[in-house]
Protein backbone atom coordinates (compact mmCIF):
# COMPACT_ATOMS: atom_id res chain seq x y z
CA UNK A 1 0.00 0.00 0.00
CA UNK A 2 1.42 3.40 -0.97
CA UNK A 3 2.01 6.16 1.59
CA UNK A 4 -0.83 8.20 0.07
CA UNK A 5 -3.27 5.27 0.36
CA UNK A 6 -2.15 4.59 3.92
CA UNK A 7 -2.72 8.19 4.90
CA UNK A 8 -6.17 8.17 3.33
CA UNK A 9 -7.06 4.85 4.99
CA UNK A 10 -5.85 6.12 8.37
CA UNK A 11 -8.27 9.03 8.00
CA UNK A 12 -11.10 6.60 7.25
CA UNK A 13 -10.17 4.61 10.35
CA UNK A 14 -10.44 7.71 12.52
CA UNK A 15 -13.76 8.58 10.89
CA UNK A 16 -15.12 5.10 11.62
CA UNK A 17 -14.10 5.41 15.25
CA UNK A 18 -15.63 8.90 15.59
CA UNK A 19 -18.93 7.61 14.25
CA UNK A 20 -19.01 4.62 16.59
CA UNK A 21 -17.42 6.22 19.68
CA UNK A 22 -17.78 10.00 19.32
CA UNK A 23 -16.47 10.64 22.83
CA UNK A 24 -13.27 8.62 22.33
CA UNK A 25 -9.98 10.51 22.16
CA UNK A 26 -7.46 8.95 19.78
CA UNK A 27 -3.89 8.97 21.11
CA UNK A 28 -1.22 9.05 18.41
CA UNK A 29 -1.61 7.66 14.92
CA UNK A 30 -3.46 4.64 13.61
CA UNK A 31 -0.97 1.95 12.66
CA UNK A 32 -1.37 -0.51 9.81
CA UNK A 33 -1.36 -4.11 11.10
CA UNK A 34 -1.85 -6.21 7.97
CA UNK A 35 -4.32 -7.36 5.35
CA UNK A 36 -6.18 -10.46 4.27
CA UNK A 37 -8.56 -11.37 1.50
CA UNK A 38 -11.43 -9.25 2.85
CA UNK A 39 -10.00 -6.67 5.27
CA UNK A 40 -7.13 -4.29 5.88
CA UNK A 41 -6.56 -4.04 9.62
CA UNK A 42 -5.51 -0.97 11.60
CA UNK A 43 -4.75 -0.57 15.30
CA UNK A 44 -5.09 2.53 17.43
CA UNK A 45 -4.92 3.61 21.02
CA UNK A 46 -7.70 5.74 22.43
CA UNK A 47 -9.14 6.93 25.71
CA UNK A 48 -12.85 6.22 26.07
CA UNK A 49 -14.80 7.14 29.20
CA UNK A 50 -11.51 7.65 31.02
CA UNK A 51 -10.14 4.20 30.13
CA UNK A 52 -7.11 3.54 27.92
CA UNK A 53 -8.23 1.17 25.19
CA UNK A 54 -6.44 -0.63 22.35
CA UNK A 55 -8.75 -1.07 19.38
CA UNK A 56 -8.64 -2.66 15.95
CA UNK A 57 -10.53 -1.33 12.92
CA UNK A 58 -10.97 -3.74 10.01
CA UNK A 59 -11.71 -1.92 6.77
CA UNK A 60 -13.14 -3.94 3.87
CA UNK A 61 -10.88 -3.90 0.86
CA UNK A 62 -12.02 -2.44 -2.45
CA UNK A 63 -13.93 -4.69 -4.80
CA UNK A 64 -14.93 -7.09 -2.02
CA UNK A 65 -18.09 -8.96 -3.05
CA UNK A 66 -21.54 -7.66 -2.21
CA UNK A 67 -22.03 -10.31 0.51
CA UNK A 68 -19.37 -8.73 2.76
CA UNK A 69 -21.85 -6.81 4.97
CA UNK A 70 -23.81 -10.00 5.67
CA UNK A 71 -20.60 -11.86 6.50
CA UNK A 72 -19.47 -9.04 8.79
CA UNK A 73 -22.77 -9.13 10.71
CA UNK A 74 -22.53 -12.90 11.05
CA UNK A 75 -18.92 -12.75 12.25
CA UNK A 76 -19.79 -10.10 14.83
CA UNK A 77 -22.64 -12.24 16.17
CA UNK A 78 -20.45 -15.34 16.10
CA UNK A 79 -17.67 -13.67 18.09
CA UNK A 80 -20.18 -12.58 20.73
CA UNK A 81 -21.43 -16.17 21.03
CA UNK A 82 -17.98 -17.79 21.00
CA UNK A 83 -16.87 -15.47 23.79
CA UNK A 84 -19.34 -17.07 26.23
CA UNK A 85 -18.71 -20.71 25.32
CA UNK A 86 -15.94 -21.11 27.89
CA UNK A 87 -13.24 -21.85 25.34
CA UNK A 88 -9.65 -21.82 26.65
CA UNK A 89 -8.58 -18.97 24.38
CA UNK A 90 -9.67 -15.36 23.96
CA UNK A 91 -11.43 -13.78 20.97
CA UNK A 92 -11.91 -10.11 20.07
CA UNK A 93 -14.97 -8.24 21.34
CA UNK A 94 -16.80 -6.43 18.54
CA UNK A 95 -17.80 -2.91 19.56
CA UNK A 96 -19.76 -2.22 16.41
CA UNK A 97 -20.06 -2.15 12.64
CA UNK A 98 -19.86 1.08 10.63
CA UNK A 99 -20.93 1.57 7.04
CA UNK A 100 -18.18 2.68 4.66
CA UNK A 101 -18.25 2.88 0.83
CA UNK A 102 -16.73 -0.61 0.48
CA UNK A 103 -19.12 -2.33 2.91
CA UNK A 104 -19.10 -2.64 6.69
CA UNK A 105 -16.05 -1.81 8.81
CA UNK A 106 -15.68 -3.72 12.07
CA UNK A 107 -14.35 -2.17 15.27
CA UNK A 108 -12.97 -4.64 17.83
CA UNK A 109 -10.98 -4.69 21.01
CA UNK A 110 -7.35 -5.55 20.33
CA UNK A 111 -6.32 -8.92 21.74
CA UNK A 112 -3.11 -8.95 23.76
CA UNK A 113 0.06 -10.42 22.35
CA UNK A 114 1.54 -10.74 18.92
CA UNK A 115 0.88 -13.08 16.01
CA UNK A 116 2.56 -16.45 16.07
CA UNK A 117 3.89 -15.70 12.58
CA UNK A 118 6.19 -13.04 14.04
CA UNK A 119 7.18 -14.86 17.23
CA UNK A 120 8.77 -18.09 16.07
CA UNK A 121 12.48 -18.22 16.87
CA UNK A 122 14.06 -21.62 16.24
CA UNK A 123 13.99 -22.44 19.96
CA UNK A 124 10.18 -22.22 19.92
CA UNK A 125 9.59 -24.08 16.67
CA UNK A 126 7.12 -26.48 18.33
CA UNK A 127 4.59 -23.66 18.63
CA UNK A 128 3.99 -24.05 14.88
CA UNK A 129 1.92 -27.14 15.58
CA UNK A 130 1.06 -27.02 19.31
CA UNK A 131 -0.77 -23.67 19.26
CA UNK A 132 -3.07 -24.38 16.27
CA UNK A 133 -3.58 -27.94 17.54
CA UNK A 134 -4.66 -26.56 20.93
CA UNK A 135 -7.10 -24.09 19.36
CA UNK A 136 -8.52 -26.62 16.89
CA UNK A 137 -9.00 -29.34 19.49
CA UNK A 138 -10.87 -26.96 21.81
CA UNK A 139 -13.09 -25.60 19.05
CA UNK A 140 -13.90 -29.06 17.69
CA UNK A 141 -15.25 -30.11 21.10
CA UNK A 142 -17.93 -27.39 20.98
CA UNK A 143 -21.48 -28.71 20.61
CA UNK A 144 -22.42 -27.53 17.09
CA UNK A 145 -26.02 -26.94 18.10
CA UNK A 146 -24.85 -24.00 20.23
CA UNK A 147 -23.86 -22.17 17.04
CA UNK A 148 -26.20 -23.73 14.50
CA UNK A 149 -27.98 -20.44 13.78
CA UNK A 150 -24.66 -18.79 12.88
CA UNK A 151 -22.60 -21.49 11.15
CA UNK A 152 -23.84 -23.87 8.51
CA UNK A 153 -22.51 -26.92 6.72
CA UNK A 154 -22.98 -30.66 6.22
CA UNK A 155 -24.44 -32.61 9.13
CA UNK A 156 -21.69 -35.26 9.14
CA UNK A 157 -18.02 -35.58 8.29
CA UNK A 158 -18.74 -38.12 5.54
CA UNK A 159 -21.38 -35.86 3.99
CA UNK A 160 -18.87 -33.02 3.89
CA UNK A 161 -16.40 -35.11 1.90
CA UNK A 162 -19.09 -36.54 -0.38
CA UNK A 163 -20.01 -32.99 -1.46
CA UNK A 164 -16.42 -32.51 -2.64
CA UNK A 165 -16.49 -35.90 -4.34
CA UNK A 166 -19.52 -34.91 -6.39
CA UNK A 167 -17.75 -31.75 -7.58
CA UNK A 168 -14.57 -33.62 -8.56
CA UNK A 169 -16.48 -36.37 -10.37
CA UNK A 170 -18.49 -33.90 -12.43
CA UNK A 171 -15.55 -32.49 -14.42
CA UNK A 172 -14.39 -35.52 -16.37
CA UNK A 173 -10.68 -34.88 -15.76
CA UNK A 174 -8.42 -37.94 -15.30
CA UNK A 175 -6.39 -36.57 -12.36
CA UNK A 176 -9.51 -35.29 -10.57
CA UNK A 177 -11.11 -38.72 -11.04
CA UNK A 178 -8.01 -40.41 -9.58
CA UNK A 179 -8.15 -38.07 -6.59
CA UNK A 180 -11.86 -38.81 -6.16
CA UNK A 181 -11.13 -42.54 -6.18
CA UNK A 182 -8.53 -42.17 -3.42
CA UNK A 183 -10.81 -39.91 -1.39
CA UNK A 184 -13.73 -42.32 -1.71
CA UNK A 185 -11.54 -45.17 -0.45
CA UNK A 186 -10.63 -43.14 2.67
CA UNK A 187 -13.92 -41.49 3.67
CA UNK A 188 -14.22 -40.26 7.26
CA UNK A 189 -16.93 -41.81 9.43
CA UNK A 190 -20.51 -40.49 9.32
CA UNK A 191 -20.08 -38.82 12.72
CA UNK A 192 -21.35 -35.31 13.47
CA UNK A 193 -19.63 -32.33 11.91
CA UNK A 194 -17.65 -29.94 14.10
CA UNK A 195 -17.40 -26.17 14.27
CA UNK A 196 -14.42 -25.19 12.07
CA UNK A 197 -12.44 -21.97 12.09
CA UNK A 198 -10.85 -22.62 8.66
CA UNK A 199 -8.01 -20.12 9.06
CA UNK A 200 -5.95 -21.17 12.10
CA UNK A 201 -2.78 -19.90 10.46
CA UNK A 202 -0.01 -18.22 12.49
CA UNK A 203 -1.18 -14.68 11.68
CA UNK A 204 -4.53 -15.43 13.33
CA UNK A 205 -3.09 -16.87 16.55
CA UNK A 206 -1.92 -14.21 19.01
CA UNK A 207 0.26 -15.15 21.99
CA UNK A 208 0.96 -12.91 24.96
CA UNK A 209 4.42 -13.69 26.32
CA UNK A 210 3.76 -13.60 30.07
CA UNK A 211 5.59 -15.33 32.89
CA UNK A 212 2.48 -16.82 34.49
CA UNK A 213 1.18 -20.19 33.29
CA UNK A 214 1.66 -22.11 30.03
CA UNK A 215 1.49 -20.25 26.73
CA UNK A 216 -1.80 -21.93 25.86
CA UNK A 217 -3.47 -19.88 28.58
CA UNK A 218 -2.39 -16.66 26.82
CA UNK A 219 -3.72 -17.46 23.34
CA UNK A 220 -6.20 -15.42 21.30
CA UNK A 221 -7.81 -16.52 18.03
CA UNK A 222 -8.90 -13.85 15.54
CA UNK A 223 -10.53 -13.64 12.07
CA UNK A 224 -13.62 -15.88 12.24
CA UNK A 225 -15.08 -14.84 8.90
CA UNK A 226 -14.81 -18.31 7.32
CA UNK A 227 -16.13 -20.40 10.24
CA UNK A 228 -18.53 -23.19 9.29
CA UNK A 229 -19.55 -26.76 10.14
CA UNK A 230 -17.68 -29.69 8.64
CA UNK A 231 -15.00 -32.34 8.89
CA UNK A 232 -12.42 -31.39 11.58
CA UNK A 233 -9.66 -32.76 9.33
CA UNK A 234 -10.16 -29.68 7.14
CA UNK A 235 -8.95 -27.31 9.88
CA UNK A 236 -5.75 -29.38 10.03
CA UNK A 237 -5.42 -29.60 6.25
CA UNK A 238 -5.53 -25.79 6.04
CA UNK A 239 -2.39 -25.85 8.21
CA UNK A 240 -0.51 -28.57 6.31
CA UNK A 241 -1.60 -27.38 2.87
CA UNK A 242 -0.58 -30.59 1.10
CA UNK A 243 3.07 -29.56 1.40
CA UNK A 244 6.01 -31.94 1.21
CA UNK A 245 7.26 -30.48 4.49
CA UNK A 246 4.09 -29.45 6.34
CA UNK A 247 4.73 -26.85 9.02
CA UNK A 248 8.34 -26.74 7.84
CA UNK A 249 9.17 -30.35 8.76
CA UNK A 250 8.99 -33.72 6.99
CA UNK A 251 7.11 -35.04 10.04
CA UNK A 252 4.98 -31.90 10.44
CA UNK A 253 1.65 -33.69 9.98
CA UNK A 254 2.60 -36.32 12.55
CA UNK A 255 3.58 -33.62 15.04
CA UNK A 256 0.35 -31.72 14.43
CA UNK A 257 -1.83 -34.82 14.89
CA UNK A 258 0.06 -35.87 18.00
CA UNK A 259 -0.49 -32.46 19.61
CA UNK A 260 -4.12 -32.28 18.42
CA UNK A 261 -4.98 -35.64 19.97
CA UNK A 262 -3.04 -34.83 23.18
CA UNK A 263 -5.24 -31.72 23.56
CA UNK A 264 -8.42 -33.81 23.19
CA UNK A 265 -9.16 -33.39 19.49
CA UNK A 266 -11.45 -35.57 17.40
CA UNK A 267 -10.33 -39.00 16.05
CA UNK A 268 -8.70 -37.64 12.89
CA UNK A 269 -6.17 -39.78 10.99
CA UNK A 270 -3.34 -38.95 8.58
CA UNK A 271 -5.39 -40.31 5.69
CA UNK A 272 -8.35 -38.09 6.60
CA UNK A 273 -6.14 -34.99 6.56
CA UNK A 274 -4.84 -36.08 3.14
CA UNK A 275 -8.46 -36.45 1.98
CA UNK A 276 -9.05 -32.79 2.79
CA UNK A 277 -5.75 -31.70 1.23
CA UNK A 278 -6.72 -33.46 -1.99
CA UNK A 279 -10.19 -31.94 -1.83
CA UNK A 280 -8.71 -28.43 -1.41
CA UNK A 281 -6.54 -28.82 -4.51
CA UNK A 282 -9.46 -30.41 -6.32
CA UNK A 283 -11.79 -27.51 -5.52
CA UNK A 284 -9.16 -25.09 -6.79
CA UNK A 285 -8.79 -27.04 -10.03
CA UNK A 286 -12.56 -27.30 -10.56
CA UNK A 287 -12.99 -23.56 -10.06
CA UNK A 288 -10.12 -22.71 -12.40
CA UNK A 289 -11.31 -25.11 -15.09
CA UNK A 290 -14.74 -23.47 -14.98
CA UNK A 291 -13.23 -20.01 -15.49
CA UNK A 292 -12.80 -18.61 -18.97
CA UNK A 293 -9.24 -17.47 -18.17
CA UNK A 294 -8.27 -20.07 -15.55
CA UNK A 295 -6.28 -22.55 -17.66
CA UNK A 296 -2.94 -21.61 -16.10
CA UNK A 297 -4.29 -21.77 -12.54
CA UNK A 298 -5.97 -25.08 -13.31
CA UNK A 299 -2.64 -26.53 -14.44
CA UNK A 300 -1.03 -25.44 -11.16
CA UNK A 301 -3.75 -27.09 -9.08
CA UNK A 302 -3.73 -30.27 -11.17
CA UNK A 303 0.06 -30.58 -10.84
CA UNK A 304 -0.19 -30.12 -7.08
CA UNK A 305 -2.95 -32.69 -6.97
CA UNK A 306 -0.90 -35.14 -9.01
CA UNK A 307 2.14 -34.71 -6.73
CA UNK A 308 0.10 -35.09 -3.55
CA UNK A 309 -1.60 -38.19 -4.91
CA UNK A 310 1.79 -39.73 -5.58
CA UNK A 311 2.97 -38.99 -2.05
CA UNK A 312 -0.12 -40.31 -0.27
CA UNK A 313 -0.05 -43.49 -2.34
CA UNK A 314 3.60 -44.05 -1.45
CA UNK A 315 3.06 -43.35 2.25
Helix-strand blueprint:
Blueprint: H1 3-20, E1 25-35, E2 39-48, E3 51-60, H2 68-82, E4 94-100, E5 103-109, E6 114-115, H3 127-140, H4 157-169, H5 174-185, E7 194-196, E8 205-207, E9 219-221, E10 228-230, H6 232-240, H7 252-262, H8 270-290, H9 295-314
Antiparallel strand pairs: 1-2, 2-3, 3-5, 4-5, 6-8, 7-10, 8-9
Percent of residues in β-strands: 15-25%
Count of beta strands: 10
Helix content: 40-55%
Order of helices and strands: HEEEHEEEHHHEEEEHHHH
Indicate the CATH architecture of the largest domain: Alpha-Beta Complex
Question: What oligomeric state do these chains adopt?
Answer: single chain
CATH class of the largest domain reads Alpha Beta
- Mean residue pLDDT: 91
Radius of gyration: 21 Å
Q: What is the number of helices?
A: 9
Shape: globular
- Counting structural domains, the number is 2
Largest sheet: 5 strands, antiparallel
**Unreliably modeled segments:** none
Q: Which structural class is indicated by helix and strand composition? A: alpha+beta
CATH homolog superfamily of the largest domain: Aminoglycoside phosphotransferase (APH), C-terminal lobe
End-to-end Cα distance: 44 Å
CATH topology of the largest domain: Aminoglycoside 3'-phosphotransferase, Chain: A, domain 2
Q: Which strand order do you get reading across the main beta sheet?
A: 1-2-3-5-4
Amino acid sequence: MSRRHRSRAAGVVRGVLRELLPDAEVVGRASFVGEGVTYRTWALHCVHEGVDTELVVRLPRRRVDAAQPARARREAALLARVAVLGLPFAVPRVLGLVEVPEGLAMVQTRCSGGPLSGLLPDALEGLRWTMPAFAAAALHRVDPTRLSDLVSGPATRAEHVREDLAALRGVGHAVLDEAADWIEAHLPPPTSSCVLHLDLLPQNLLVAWLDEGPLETHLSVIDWEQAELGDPALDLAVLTGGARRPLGRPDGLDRLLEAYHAYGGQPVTRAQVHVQELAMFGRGAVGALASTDGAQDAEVYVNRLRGLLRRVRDA
